[in-house]
Design brief:
The complex is a heterodimer of chains A (575) and B (263). Chain A has 575 residues and is an alpha+beta fold. In chain A, 31% of the residues lie in helices and 20% in strands. Among the domains of chain A are: 5-58 and 142-218 and 317-396, FAD/NAD(P)-binding domain (3-Layer(bba) Sandwich); 81-137 and 220-314, D-Amino Acid Oxidase, Chain A, domain 2 (2-Layer Sandwich), CATH 3.30.9.90. In chain A, strands 1, 2, 8, 9, 10, 11, 17 and 18 form an 8-stranded mixed β-sheet that branches. Chain A has a 7-stranded mixed β-sheet with strand order 6-5-13-14-15-12-16. Chain A has a 3-stranded antiparallel β-sheet with strand order 3-7-4, with no helix packed on it. The longest helix of chain A has 20 residues, at 347-366. Chain A is globular. With 263 residues, chain B is of the alpha/beta class. Chain B has a single domain (4-221), classed as Rossmann fold. In chain B, helix 2 (68-78) runs antiparallel to helix 5 and helix 3 (99-111) crosses helix 4 (137-144). Classes of the chains: A alpha+beta (575), B alpha/beta (263). At the A-B interface, helix 4, strand 8 and helix 15 of A face helix 2 and helix 5 of B. The complex binds flavin-adenine dinucleotide and iron/sulfur cluster (2 copies). One iron/sulfur cluster binds next to helix 18 of chain A.
Chain lengths: 575, 263
């Protein structure tokens, strides 16, 4: 086989940061030779979909164990927006409006908790060990990726090409022999293809289709994370490194975060999970209510939105782990099932998988062994199995089972798994797909729902807003600074790019399915308002607004959306 | 005709990003801002690429001065647009270096390009930079290289049979000056040109990368900026203000803009 390069990499997130940092250091020390270009060091090429390596969406608070192993002298001052964690709290947010959908038991408990609450919330007296991040850092994923990527580039031993989406791995005779570039469909061949394209990358999904998942593994748990970067008011009392984890509001099953960076900047966001039964779920409106909760509003009132972003998380973790290696390829990062939903941590885990693969690759290069499944399993997979990642992800594996049965069972299940180190867990169940009538039963009559549906369809406005209004959620009082419309968040919160000539990457597979679909969840949940009612019954897609959050992919109940690799999107280097 | 085209261009903070410059001794956070190839120079580059495509055997060089790490990051996108060879200079970022110093460093770097015939050179650049806007750098580079045929704010170039050039320069009031230049060498400092941004093409990037990566590795520090010291730096009070209005009459919007400008 003629090789264009030795190692081809898909995606540049923390996983690939870990891989390329470790690999290029090894290559520089060892004087290894390229098989593709004899006489030169091994040729390493990484393709990133986004327009710059500084574009991503994440929290981030991280214990950074693996990152610090790579950079023992890690100095947060060297990374813009980074700060050591200075305080950490876990807060249960009560519902100040009584508009959320709380089970009766929770409502009763809330009644009692209200007495002890301050600012409409209860700060838990202690944070379970498995959640604690007090020895870690608050980061901006964009700035961290850029910091790590620049060092890799400066080594001269790896190329990272941005705005270069990979449409699929090149699969020939049952083995992966390279990648296919979305730009022109050209194949590029390499001895090893490293797939680190995150939770919903096209290359990783194609591998799942081709090789399936190990027996018993499923990828059915997702969340869309949506965040704001906020410039806090000048008189803020929040110290950099303040970390607040929340649960209970705007819906009880929505977890939230609030992290403070240096220079009066905060990241605030929520996770809207796949088990939220509302078929017209919306992350943006929920996010606006979240930041207006009295507990947080006292910090952000008078602040300004600097940046906004959304991205899906694959929350199946170890249960959704694919085959980690095969002939000619290996998988790292969230797409390889590394994210831990119990500890709420994905960045450091992703980084670790990358470093483990790089160590393995260096061994194989040194021993001049080919990148076969057996060799990669004996080196990379073996390292992964004996590390803290595997131990902790096994504890987390069934931690969220309870949420399929209900929110209280979900919380109890997490505590059970966390405190018994995974020995006990809540029995699993199937996530129910509710109809609107079922979801709003007891709060809105079927007749009222139909009425609202008709009004919204006639006016061409979103159903979720109207339904939330009808349930008692207060209208958002836009201030043009922090509280802005969804469209304005797109305009003000980053840079929208849709290169001319690129094809639509969101496609509706089967028109009949859409025509018969009553929920049209894809329209309501779209993070960029890029999917809307079209002229036919098939929704319309506007590439110019798509933020590539991947949420439409898993939100369609009929799995009717094809999500291809495409360039552009919506980007901010601050997220 | 086998043209030798040298494009001079620096990098500039991406104007569409949300991160804003923080004033400090220079700009405190300059290295954390996402950067793009200077938009004016980018037009020059696309025109150079187009000309080279139409004239087999032509070659494009990009001479660029910027902090090495940032330049490398930007080049990973630019190099996917069209084939060129990079001559990198590890120097200070755009806004705070005197244009005469920059021109000197660029001209010196151009002189080192092997096989370049200065008497046949097409020197391209932006009519000004997005960071400093001095509008004098390219003229100085041309002068230092002995190029007296200079065109500023170029919108269009037509290469005529026999090798003469017809050049459209932008003037005040939407008018253009059309000149005929009998031949090379010539310096064209571009305004917007006519070409759209070429789509990214990773294989072009990889082909450029073979020379680009080692060149960046070896980029020499350029001692530009020594001739000029800034005692104080302040940013304009309003850098950018986004106001989103709906259904407002144009006259009202115009009135608000005038009020904002005169504040
Ligand atoms: C809102 C939010 C908050 C979070 N908060 C935290 C937190 O506080 N702490 C924590 O530890 N984790 C957090 N996470 C999770 C964490 O961000 C992820 O687990 C982590 O980023 C995964 O890293 P990765 O390298 O595997 O994938 P990613 O970061 O997703 O990187 C994958 C890269 O691949 C690129 N790509 C995708 N498809 C292609 C393609 N076809 N071709 C080329 N490139 C492609 C993408 O553009 C991306 O840059 C959060 C996530 C979100 C969304
Ligand atoms: S894509 Fe899915 S959710 Fe959207 S209309 Fe079609 S079937 Fe319904
Ligand atoms: S269309 Fe784009 S913005 Fe909308 S959900 Fe899908 S990926 Fe996200």
């Amino acid at each position: 086989m003629n090789l264009d390069a030795d190692i081809l990499c898909v995606g540049f997130g923390p996983a690939m940061g870990g891989f390329l940092t470790t690999l290029t250091r090894g290559l520089s020390e060892e004087g290894l030779e390229s098989a593709a270009m004899p006489g030169l060091p091994p040729q390493v090429i990484c393709y990133e979909r986004a327009d710059d390596i500084s574009f991503g969406v994440s929290g981030v608070v991280t214990r950074a164990r693996a990152i610090r192993a790579s950079f023992p002298e890690f100095d947060p001052d060297a990374v813009p927006m980074a700060a050591p964690v200075t305080s950490e709290s876990l807060v249960y947010l009560l519902d100040p409006h009584g508009a959320s959908r709380r089970p009766a038991m929770l409502r009763a408990a809330d009644g009692i908790l209200k007495i002890a609450a301050e600012h409409g919330a209860i700060e838990l007296p202690y944070i379970p060990g498995f959640l604690q991040k007090h020895d870690g850092f608050v980061l901006s994923i964009g700035q961290f990726n850029q910091w790590a990527g620049q060092q890799v580039l400066m080594s001269g031993l790896a190329q990272i090409w941005p705005s270069a989406p990979v449409s699929a791995p090149l699969i020939e005779e049952g083995r992966v022999s390279g990648v296919v570039l979305a730009a022109d469909g050209a194949g590029v061949r390499g001895a090893l293809t490293v797939v680190g394209d995150g939770p919903y990358g096209a290359a990783g999904r194609r591998l799942d289709e081709e090789f399936g998942l190990p027996e018993g593994h499923v990828r059915d748990e997702w969340a869309v994370g949506m965040k704001l970067v906020i410039e806090l008011p000048e008189d803020t009392t929040l110290a950099p490194g303040t970390v607040i984890h929340t649960f209970g509001y705007p819906e009880p099953e929505i977890f939230g975060f609030f992290y403070t960076h240096p220079d009066r900047i905060a990241s605030a966001g929520i996770f809207v999970p796949s088990w939220l039964e509302n078929p017209v779920r919306t992350a943006y409106r929920y996010l606006q209510h979240f930041i207006q909760h009295p507990y947080l509003w006292r910090y952000v009132r008078g602040g300004r939105m600097k940046s906004w972003g959304a991205k899906s998380l694959l929350e199946s973790g170890r249960r959704g782990e694919p085959f980690l290696a095969g002939d000619g390829y290996a998988r790292i990062g969230e797409g390889s099932g590394s994210t831990n939903v119990l500890t709420g941590s994905g960045v450091d885990e992703a980084w670790l998988t990358g470093t483990q693969l790089a160590e393995a690759v260096l061994v194989l290069l040194r021993e001049k062994k080919p990148f076969t499944r057996e060799n990669l399993e004996a080196t990379y997979v073996a390292r992964r199995r004996t590390s803290w990642l595997e131990r902790e992800n096994l504890v987390a594996e069934k931690a969220r089972n309870g949420f399929a049965r209900g929110v209280i069972q979900g919380f109890l299940g997490m505590a059970l798994a966390g405190f018994t180190r995974g020995r006990l867990h809540w029995p699993s169940g199937d996530v129910k797909r509710r109809t609107l009538k079922e979801y709003y039963s007891g709060r809105l009559s079927p007749h009222r729902i139909v009425e609202i549906q008709k009004q919204c369809a006639a006016a061409g406005i979103s159903l979720h807003d109207a339904l939330m209004d009808a349930c008692g959620w207060p209208a958002i009082q836009y201030d043009g600074q922090l509280l802005v419309t969804h469209q304005d968040a797109l305009l003000m919160g980053g840079k929208v790019q849709a290169p001319a000539g690129a094809e639509d990457h969101v496609l509706f597979r089967d028109a009949v399915l859409c025509e018969e679909c009553r929920q049209r969840t894809c329209i309501e949940m779209c993070s960029g308002q890029a999917i809307h009612a079209g002229e036919t019954k098939v929704p319309a897609f506007e590439r110019e607004k798509c933020v590539h959050c991947g949420a439409c992919l898993w939100n369609c109940p009929g799995n009717n959306i094809a999500f291809a690799a495409g360039p552009g999107g919506f980007h901010s280097a601050e997220n | 005709m086998s043209y030798q085209i040298v494009v001079c261009g620096g990098i500039a903070p991406d104007p569409l990003q949300t991160l804003e410059p923080v004033p400090g001794p220079a700009l405190k956070n300059e290295m954390m801002l996402p950067h793009v190839f200077d938009p004016w120079a980018a037009h020059a580059l696309y025109e150079a690429g187009h000309l080279a495509k139409l004239n087999p055997g032509a070659k494009v060089w990009v001479v660029s001065m910027a902090p090495k790490a940032k330049l490398q990051q930007v080049m990973m996108t630019v190099a996917q647009k069209l084939p060129f060879e990079l001559v990198p200079l590890d120097g200070p970022p755009g806004g705070f270096t005197d244009s005469a110093d920059v021109a000197e460093a660029l001209a010196a770097a151009i002189r080192t390009i092997a096989g370049l015939d200065l008497s046949r050179l097409l020197l391209f650049g932006g009519w000004e930079s997005a960071t400093r806007g001095a509008g004098t750098t390219m003229q100085r580079v041309g002068a230092l290289l002995g190029i007296t045929e200079q065109f500023l704010a170029v919108d269009q170039l037509e290469v005529r049979d026999g090798g003469s050039l017809r050049v459209w320069e932008r003037l005040e009031g939407g008018r253009q000056q059309v000149s005929l230049c009998s031949g090379l060498p010539a310096m064209l400092a571009w305004a917007t040109g006519h070409l759209p941004e070429p789509p990214n093409h990773p294989p072009t990037g990889m082909a450029n990368g073979r020379l680009l990566m080692p060149a960046l590795q070896k980029a020499k520090p350029a001692p530009a900026g020594a001739g000029c010291t800034f005692l104080d730096v302040s940013l304009p009070k309003q850098i950018r203000q986004t106001v989103i209005v709906k259904d407002k009459p144009a006259a009202e919007i115009a009135r608000e803009i005038v009020e904002w400008i005169t504040q």
